[in-house]
Amino acid sequence: MATRTESQGRCSLCGASFSKRQIARHLSECAYPEGRNVAAVVQLRVDAPGTPFWLDVDVKANAPLRDLDDFLRNIWLECCGHLSSFEVGSTSYVVLMDDDFFGPARDERSMNARVSASLPPEGSLFAYEYDYGSTTHLRLKVVAHRMAPSRRESVRLLARNDDPVWTCTECEKTATALCAYCFQEGDAFFCEAHAGEHNCGEEAITPVVNSPRMGVCGYTGGV
Ligand SMILES: [Zn+2]
Ligand SMILES: [Zn+2]
Ligand SMILES: [Zn+2]
Ligand SMILES: [Zn+2]
C-alpha cells in the first residue's frame, strides 16, 4: 500500500506534526511535563505491519489488559464483536468465557490481568490479533515505563498517523472508497464517480478510513 503521507503523524495533546520517527522525542516532553507526573503508565507504539497506520498510546500500569483491547477496538477495529487476543511471549491473553467447562487452555490467561503483570520489559515487542477469521494483526512495542499526569481513562492517545491519501485507480483523483473484494488482490481505491461504476457492485464498496481494518468485514470507521 503506497501513500504520500505514510510517515507523518500528529501529537494528540498539542496538535503538532512530526514524522513517525521524530515524534517519540516530542512525546517524551509533551506528554510527560515535569512536576505533574503521578500515575505509573506504560508507553506503547502500536503498528499495523505493512500499512501506514500507527498509534502512540500510554496505558495505566494498574489497568487490566482488557482496557487496551477496548481502546484498540474503538479507535481502529470493531466491526461485529470478533474475538481478540494479546500474544506476549508464549502466553495468550484472551477474554475467558464463563461456560468454558475445561477452563483456560495451557498458556492462556485472562485479559483481566493487569498491564504491569502481563506486558514484557521496555524495548520488547508483543502482538495483538483482532478476529481469528479475517485477522487484523498488530505489533506493539513497549517504548517506556513512565510516570504521567493523572487522568481518568486507562488508555491515552498520544499520537496517530495522518489520514493516508489514496488515489483512484481509474483517474488519479483522491479516493473516498475501496472495493473490499478487489482489495485483497491489490490496490482497489476509487473516487466517488468510479466507485459507482465499479463492477463488483455496491455491496463491495466500503469507505476509506484511517484504520488497518479498512476494507475488511464491512468496517466503516472508529467511534
Ligand atoms: Zn505535543
Ligand atoms: Zn466483522
Ligand atoms: Zn476516479
Ligand atoms: Zn471489486
Explain what the structure shows.
This protein is α+β, with helices and mostly antiparallel strands. It folds into 2 domains: 8-161, MM3350-like (Structural Genomics Hypothetical 15.5 Kd Protein In mrcA-pckA Intergenic Region, Chain A, Roll); 177-207, no CATH class. 14% of the residues lie in helices and 31% in strands. The protein contains 4 helices and 13 strands. It has helices at residues 23-30, 65-77, 115-118, 192-197; strands at 8-11, 17-19, 39-47, 54-60, 84-88, 91-94, 108-110, 125-130, 136-148, 155-161, 177-179, 189-190, 205-207. The chain has a 10-stranded mixed sheet with strand order 2-1-10-4-3-9-8-5-6-7, with helices on both faces. Strands 12-11-13 form a 3-stranded antiparallel sheet. A hairpin with a 5-residue loop joins strand 1 and strand 2. The radius of gyration is 19 Å and the shape is globular. It starts with 7 loop residues before the first strand and ends in a 16-residue tail after the last strand. Bound molecules: zinc ion (4 copies).
